[in-house]
Amino acid sequence: MKRLKRVAAIHDISGFGKCSLTVALPIISAAGIETTVLPTAVLSTHTGGFTGFTYRDLTEDIAPITEHWKSLDIQFDAIYTGFLGSFEQLDLVTRFFKAFKTDDNIILVDPVMADNGELYKIFSPEFAVGMSKLCEQADIIVPNLTEAALLLGEKYNPGPYTEAYIEETMKKLSALGPQKIVLTGVFFNDEELGAATYDAVTGEVAYAFEKRIPGYYHGTGDVFGSALLAAILNDFRLNEAAAIAVRFTTSAIKKTAEAGTDIRYGVNFEQSIPEFLRDLKLQG
Ligand code: PXL
Fold it and tell me: Other CB atoms closer than 10 Å to residue 67's CB: what's the count?
């Protein structure tokens, strides 16, 4: 039997608050993909809205972990990066890409650094320049519209957007290097919210929307990115994978809104996994 497809997920692990590795690991594994984790830091909670969180930096471990995996000749079908805490970590991840990139695997970079027009408070504006260099090496990037503006050195546009703006933004992002762009937080009106996709090789542009649920819920970018990658590795086309990821994320937000949980605590993606697996045709 062939081995399972395998992802290297390079993110922090925030103990409480459902984001980064505590989201990527269960979602990608549930979709039948082996998930190898490279934790870049251990925090008590994520940094969005909590104060007093602990932050154990694991930068020193990244190169030895990379070398050990290389010595074992481990192959990855995808390398998935998210929250990275420093310029040094961006460099170390670049080295990881050089060690494990092949003609057949994909690098998906989620340039986690900002949302709603604002950089997360631990990042400086220069960090966006470093992140755009990391994006140059990716096959697929998954920025939200704030991150897209930062990567392009442009002013943030709060929306509503036009198709012309979204398509121009995606084309400029792919000119940085990645063949495929998935832009999140796209909306043309107040009723619907979703994602847009662009493939620079085929020129195909597509949109996936669901009904907007009011409120800003933490960790949704990581839920979306993990579901998108899981769908791509289950052989869905980019636009189909984005539609599945939008549906899954929206379903998780809906359940969280119904439960009335604190928006900092993350979304109830766990209860949406059965419908996600049905969408992936992994379960009847
Ligand atoms: O969900 C993105 C994310 C991941 N990891 C940490 C974060 C954030 C966003 O704030 O703080 C530590």
Answer: 12
